[in-house]
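Meet today's protein:

…
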Amino acid sequence: MTLDVFFRENPAVALAFSGGTDSSYLLYAARQAGARVRAYYVRTCFQPAFELRDAQRLAAELGAELAVLELDVLADETVRQNPPDRCYRCKRRLFTRLLEQARADDFPVLMDGTNASDDADDRPGMRALRELGVRSPLRECGITKSEVRRLSRQAGLFTADKPAYACLATRIPTGTEITPERLAATERAEDALFSLGFTDFRVRWFHGAARVQLRAEQLPLWREKRREIVQALTQDYAAVLLDMVTRNE
């Protein structure tokens, strides 16, 4: 199946829109195919502010409808306690809200940007998508992440080379309570590193310390900016640690 075929078969679709590379290209493809599509961004304390700005910018550039929904994910005590299946529970809550709104707005299909490179066995949130009947056209059409980036560059989308960005909750170790304060500290720390020129990194909560994971090629910048990094991050953390292991989620 191709995306054009998918949208012919599903001419009215709602999109779970993050402003990332995959969902941005999917919104573009739906518009190009002539589908009636509305993008829905769910604003929670798990998303940094720049993600909403990117979503608003991309939707505006495409002339696409964008609805912003609010959701208090930490109202769920189980999510707050951060168990091993926190991602699944959070995704269930988020996509249930999206489905309710999509149906109320007369969109019979909800889709997301999962692509063919995403490993279902390594992403517990994908279990929630299957259970709720959320469609993933990129995955169904066999379109990989590298293809999404290539097609996005051809389409002139500014998200083409945007680094993958997992939600802020992933920075808090499993079993450690997720609080608004810890999430805000994470966002401030990562904003500070972005402002210093770092890209594709993580600042993780580690017993009150900031555990920073970088790509090896950015270590010279770390040495150059060490003083500024320590000054910025110790506003919220007791210590700053550099993790020498390759970054992963």
